[in-house]
Specification:
single chain, 124 residues, mainly beta, 4-stranded antiparallel β-sheet
Amino acid sequence: QVQLVESGGGLVQPGGSLRLSCAASGFTFSLYTMSWYRQPPGKERELVADITSAGTSINYADSVKGRFTISRHNDKNTVYLQMNNLKPEETAVYYCNANRRPLGAVRSTLYNYWGQGTQVTVSS
C-alpha cells in the first residue's frame, strides 16, 4: 500500500536543470521527513537533501548547496527536488525516501520507505 513514485528524471546537458517529483501514498505523509538520495553508477547511495515533516528544517549535502532546492506540499503528498546547474558527475539514479523522525534527528529503522528511483543523466 505504501508507494513513493518519482518522476521528472531524464537527460539534461551540463549546466541544465531538472525538477524531480515524488508522489507518496499509503502513509501519513505529513508525519515523515522526506529525503532525496542518489546513487551514481558503481558508487554508494548518498543523501542529497532532506526536509522535515512540517518543512521547518532542511538539510543539503555540501556538494549541492546553492544549486538544489528541496520542498514539499503536504496537502498534495508530494516532495520535490529542483536541481540547477547540473554536473556530469551527478548522473545517478535519484531515490525518494520517507522516514519517521519524531524528534527530528534520528532516522527510524521501522518507518522507512523508498521509491523505485528515477534516472538522471547529465551529459552533452
